[in-house]
Amino acid sequence: PLLPLRKAELVAYCAQRGVTPRHDATNDVPDGLRNRVRLELLPELAASYNPRITESLCRLAATAAEDSAALEQEAERACRKATRMLAAEYRYWQRGREIELPASLGLSAEALRQLPRGMARRVLRRYLVAIGRTVDVSLERTDALLAFLASGKGNRIEFPGFDIMLAHGWLRPGVVHLRVY
Questions:
Q1: Which run of H or of E encompasses 85?
Q2: Hey, which of 133, 147, 165, 179 would disulfide with 128, CB 3.0 to 4.6 Å?
Q3: pLDDT by residue (tens digit) across 50-95?
């Protein structure tokens, strides 16, 4: 909430109310990236390009936060619309092995394909979290899933610790156990 305020404004506010602000001396040393940006880059940008760079960046951050919140609401709606609980299913997989797909939350591959790429990523992140895969829900992982869907090749994509299967047009958590015949 204090991001749009300059240090001088905060110091003046404290002085008016008889409060002594705390000073962290580590913020005065340009030894880390954050401090170098604040102490060197922003003053250079203000001097050379835009004297109101801080205000401009704060407005950009506020607008981006509002846009992101709106997109997240839309992703939530799209995810609810594109998911459903799927019954347990047995089917033959490769090399004569039968696999059991548990009853699980499925995500419609077709619904996902129809979304703009950025929205599809958001929906995939929500889906992965919904099925309990909260570790490393990264851009690389969502892009790998989108590439898997676009390729039309195979029925399973493996990630460290879990698989995602494509079965009858639905993405769903992968193999529970294998039985060899």
A1: strand 83-86
A2: 133
A3: 999 988 998 999 999 999 999 999 999 999 999 999 888 766 555 5
Amino acid at site 119: M
At 92, which amino acid appears? Answer: Y
**Count of structural domains within the chain:** 2
Q: Which residues, at least 6 apart from 136, have a Cβ–Cβ distance to it below 8 Å?
A: 160
Is the domain of 15 the same as that of 95? no
Do 36 and 91 reside in the same domain of the chain?
Answer: no
pTM: predicted TM-score of the whole model, two decimal places:
0.74
- pLDDT tens digits for 162-181? 888 888 899 998 764 444 44
CATH number, domain containing residue 125 = 3.30.465.60
Within-domain flag for 122: yes
Kindly give, in sequence order, each residue whose CB lies less than 8 Å from that of residue 68, ignoring residues fewer than 6 positions away.
Answer: none
